[in-house]
# Entry
Amino acid sequence: MTVAEGTEGELPASVGTVQAIDLGFTSVPTLEAGTNVVRLSNKGKQIHEIKPHRLNRDTTIEEVVAWVKQPGGPPPMRFLSAVASNPGAEATTEFELERGSNYAFVCVIPDVLGDFQPHPTKGMFTTPFVID
# Structure
């Protein structure tokens, strides 16, 4: 797609910002049950994404990382949405969270500046959190 003309718009209002660096997240806003709009601010040198995952019951983040590295069988999580951003850019994504469920943000993009392994294998995920 090529955009030939037009005006630059504003990103939608968000409940907060997740800041991505190479290879991790430095901030995650407090989220609530219901609809959330979150901004991704990419401070890294390669493309990053925030992809909220709802973890299956009793699933650990290590199980999610192992599945991303080598998918097989049913995933231990459900993808809710995603947004990627180039270095120095920002974007937003909207998703629904359920009270009592366990979530984590994960960036599954390959490490194009290194060995091309998915970013979660290098620690690019958040500590799981429960929505009260």
